[in-house]
Specification:
It is built from eight helices and no strands. The chain is mainly alpha-helical and 164 residues long. The protein has one domain: Serine Threonine Protein Phosphatase 5, Tetratricopeptide repeat, CATH 1.25.40.
Amino acid sequence: MDLLSRPRAGLFVAAVLAVAALAACAHGGEGEASRPESERAGDAAGVGSIAAAERPVREISTDRAMASDAGAGTPARSASQRVVEEGKGYLIADQPREAAQRFERATRIDPTNGFAYYYLGRARAEAGDRSGAVGVLEKAEALLGPYPEWRERAAHLAASLDGR
């Protein structure tokens, strides 16, 4: 039975998506740089499995891009990023296939959005498609040039899935 066909599960998914959207707004788009150093230092320490490699999805804000990212601030990036936030809600709800569909749509809206590719790779990995995840994560790594921490996350996750 499809999870969304159950009334309570459907409400749960809707609530998770609403919380994810509110969390994105509450961050004010300040991103990684606004987090205290003590919080950021802990992110690199727990790298290993998919679950340990990343802090909970809802803690990560990618709303405001750095000036060196050519796609930052464009209407396509904004639209793509809204779909990424939606997909992150599905990851939180442990629905990686549904999340992957959102991230794929985000990559079609803005093919230069490295965050969309990163989360697509992560969703594919969580759905069990390790080989599909590796290629997408390598593309994310290339697109995340202006974001060294994110580039490193993509590279580490790809390496852990590829057995490198």
